Amino acid sequence: MPASPAFDLGGRVALVTGSSRGIGRSLADGLAAAGATVVLNGLDKSRLDRTRAELAERHGSDRVHASPFDITDEDQVTAAVAGVEGDVGPIDVLVNNAGIQHRVPMLDLDVADWRRVVEHNLTSAFVVGRAVARRMVERRRGKIINIGSVQSDLARPTIAPYTASKGGLRNLTRAMAAEWGGANIQANSVAPGYIHTEMTQNLVDDAAFNAWVVGRTPAGRPLGQQRGSRRAHRLARVGRVGLRQRADDLRRRRHDGGRVMTAEFLAAGIPDRAVGLVAHAARDVRVEPVAVRAPGPDEAVVEVAYGGICGSDLHYWQHGAAGVSILREPMLLGHEIVGTVRRAATDGSGPTTGTAVAVHPARPHPGDGTQRYPADRPNISPAGTYLGSAAHHPHTQGGFARYPTIEAHMLRPLPAGLSLRTAALAEPAGVAWHAVSRAGDVRGRSALVIGAGPIGALVVAVLRRAGAAEITVVDLHQPPLDRARALGATRTLLASDSAALRTVQPDVTIESSGSPHGLAAAIENTARGGRVVMLGLLPPGAQPVPVSTAIARELELVGSFRFVDEIDHVLRALADGSLDVEAVITHEYPVDDALAALTTAADPVRSGKVLLTFDPALAARP
User: Fold this and answer.
1) How many structural domains is the chain composed of?
2) Residue 373 falls in the annotated catalytic set
3) How far apart are CA 85 and CA 88, in angstroms?
C-alpha cells in the first residue's frame, strides 16, 4: 500500500501483536506503508521471520522488526516491551490484534478452552496494554488500538468464548481511555467483520457461509485487508471526534473550510479540525468543529484538557456582549484553559512538546502611544488583548477548543505534581491574587469580601494565604457562603443582614460582585481610612455610589483589572499546597454538554467554578 501524506506516521514505532499472518500482517503492512517502524509479534518464529523478510523487502529492513514473545505471559511481555524500546525505540502505537477462535457448542465447551480463548483475546490485551502504557504514561503520549470484532455486539452459535472475550475487549478499551486519557493516551477499538485472509480461507471456501456473509454486507462483499489496515492506521494518527445534533440554542454545525494543517501536524496526532465552543450571537453558542490554525514560528499547538467558564463567557452567551465588548463575528469563547503542548514553537521559545501548561491569556500592547500607562503594569495597556474577547475587531479568538494555537510566551509550565484540573483555576486565581496585592499588606488585618462567586471565593483563599486575621464574606445566597467558609472565611453574612454588616468595619474591602449595590456597601461599611479594591466589573456608564462618603472617610478606592504575572505565583502556591482552592470547583461537563454547563454556571446558588472537559477520556463530575 503506498503511503498517503494524510496518514504519515514517519518516525513512529508501532507494535502489532499476532502479526505474522492474517489481519495483523495486513495491519503491520499498512502501518509501515504509512511510514511507521513496525515490530511484528508471534509465537511461530519461522513464520514470523518469513513475514518480516517479506515486509522488509517492501519497506526496508530498518523499519520492520520482529519480537517473538508469548502475549499471555506477563514476564515475557515485560521483557519484550523493554527490549523493543531499547533496540527499536519508544512504542508510539500498540495494536492488540492477536486472538484465537474455538468453535464448540456451549454445552460441550470445556472450561479450559473457555479460559484459553479469553486469556488470548482479552487478558493478553490487558497484559500487553498495561506494559506499554506504563511507558506511554511517563512520556504523556501514545495510541492503543484494540482489534475487536462484530462479535463484540453480536453473537453466533458455537463461538461463546470468542464473543465474550471480544465484548470484554470493547469495554477494556473504554477502561483504558478512562484511566490513561489524562496522560494523552488515546485508546480505540476497531470491530471488523469477516475479512478474507488465509486464516478464514475455509469460511470463504464454504459457499453457503460465504453467501450468507456477502448477503449481510451492504457493499455486497467481505471487507478486504487493505481497508482494515487503513482504518487502523487512521486511528493510529488521530482519535475520532463524534458529532451529534443538539437541541435548543446550542447546536453543532459543520464548517466546510480548507485544510490549514500540514501532514507534519497530522502525523503528530493533530487534526485539521477539532471541537470548539463558538459564540455567534446572544443565546446562540455552538459546539462545532473549528479549524486548527497552523502555528507560526513562535506559536505552539496545545491539546486542551480543561476550560473554566468565566463571567465574560456567560455574558457573551446571554447578551452577545460583555460590557462594551459586543460580538460582531463568531468567536471562540474561553480564556481559562490548561492542557499539554502537542507541537512546540519551532523558534525554540516556550515549553517543549509534552509539557503540561496553563495559559496566560493576555497580550499587552501600547497602542498608538497616545495613552500613557506604567510600564510595569501591562495589564492596563490601552490596546492589550485577551483570549476570548470581543473588545477589538477582528475579535481575539479564545481557547475553548481541543487544539488552539497559542503564542509560546503565553504558556506557563505546570510545576511538578500539579494536576491539570487544579491548574484550571490558575487564571481566575491570578485575578484574585492581583486584587489582594492591590489591597496592600493584609497580614494581621481584617478584610471584607463582597460577593462569593468563583472570583470572590478565590479572593478568600488568597487572603487566607496572605495572612489576613479576619475574613468576612457577604453574599445574597447561603451556598456560596458555605463554599467561602470552606476556603477560609472566618465569618459569613447574608447581604440582607445590614445591621450585622455595619459591625464589621474592615481595614480592606474587596468588592467582587460587580454591582452598584455591592460597591455602595463596600464604601459604606469599610473602616475610616481603609481601602476598597474594586474588582467586580460594573456596567458601563455612570454608577450611583456614595462617593461623598468615601471622601469624608478618606477611603482609598483602588481598581483591580485582570493581573500582570501573578499567575506564576499562583501556580507555585497551588503546587506547594499553600493555596487551597479545591472547594471552588463544583461541576465538570464534557464540552458536548456545554449548554448544560453554561446554564449551571449562570446559577450562583448551584455552582461555583464550572469546568468544561475537552478530553473525551475525562469523565464528567456533576
Assistant:
1) 3
2) no
3) 6
